Amino acid sequence: MPDRVHLDMVVFETTDACNQSCKFCYNHFKSQQGFIMAAPDFSLAKKSLQTLLQQAEVSSISFSGGEPLLVPRLFDLILKARFAGSNVHLLTNGTLLTDDTIGYCRDLGVEMIQIPILAPDAELHDSITGLAGSWQRAVATARKIARWDSSRLIPVFVLSALNISYVLPTLELYRDLDVKHIMFNRFNVGGLGIQHWKALRLTTQQLQDTFAAASRFLVENNMVANSGVCSPICILDPKHYPGIRFALCNTDVSHRPITVNYRGDVRYCNHSPRVLGNIHREPLSQILTQATASGYFDSVPDVCAQCSLWSRCRGGCRAASEQLYGRFDLADPILNG
Ligand SMILES: C[S@@+](CC[C@H](N)C(=O)[O-])C[C@H]1O[C@@H](n2cnc3c(N)ncnc32)[C@H](O)[C@@H]1O
Ligand code: SF4
Ligand code: SF4
């Protein structure tokens, strides 16, 4: 019996399939030529989750995708995770949750439900997601969850050139849902976002001004945001944005958002395209030990070589460099504007 590893957090990608095609979506397989979306496969997802839970004790599992609500019997999977003692977060675009499935979330003790609300109105949100009616449904779902327990609802803002002018009215919408915690992500290039990169990307000045305005709003309204995307400290220095908590890229695998998809493929994080191994072929403990020993994290981008912040920052999100340039030894593409 191989060692059972302990992980703080796993992102479990339940399916590649999605009913939206958000212009910014980082799902790495969407940048592949001739990519064909596989249909949801409950049996395979169940087998992979069971194997994961046999091989690892996981404090918190984020059910993500693609769109997890497209997986039939998704709540059987969530029940398995809860039985194994894991806290569960559900990352969904919110368009497919019903009164019944919100009830299942309540009954199963789902800790957090994250729903992207990208704009204060339907027209802009739907133009980003590519699905007519998606804003209406996501906001209606968010309202229902907030009525049940607003502390379980985490609205997600993905900041890009498309919605930069609408940050404050969108944060006002979140405040009116009575939430105290939100996600405030900058657009991180990858997946479908590579195709739309020029239309989505922001200058350093735009990022800094917008993070400062968002932080002020959050502090004034007694709210707090997590920035879910690691960012170079020379672009976004956490000390200037007290209302926003920043994720930094941790090289210790037990504290990383290790990502396992429904086929059992393991990756360093949800943004990284690089498959480290498959839990149906070798134990997770071995995959992670080999990954740590590979020295992959040791490469230092030239631009960071003399930087005193290196040990904290590690070049921002180099999974984005892998996605855009096919290389991990280059700093976050955001440094190149
Ligand atoms: C890939 S989605 C999967 C779950 C679900 N389909 C959804 O949209 O919530 C997970 C989360 O990542 C966010 N996201 C997707 N692409 C992103 C990007 N390029 N940069 C930052 N956040 C992104 C989404 O808004 C969502 O909150
Ligand atoms: S961000 Fe979520 S909803 Fe949007 S395309 Fe990606 S997986 Fe689908
Ligand atoms: S380590 Fe690199 S990306 Fe991070 S602050 Fe220093 S120069 Fe910028």
Bound molecules: S-adenosylmethionine, iron/sulfur cluster
The shape is globular
Task: Give the helix level as a range of percent.
Answer: 25-40%
Poorly predicted spans: none
Radius of gyration in whole Å, from Cα?
A: 19 Å
**Biggest sheet: strand arrangement:** 8-7-6-5-4-3-2-1-9-10-11
Largest sheet, strands/sense/barrel = 11 strands, mixed
Q: Structural class from helices and strands?
A: alpha/beta
Q: From the structure provided, what is the oligomeric state, counting identical versus distinct chains?
A: single chain
Q: Calculate the mean pLDDT score and round it.
A: 96
* Number of extended strands: 11
Give the percentage of residues in beta strands: 15-25%
Order of helices and strands: EHEHEHEHHEHEHHHEEEEEHHH
Distance between the termini: 49 Å
Number of helices: 12
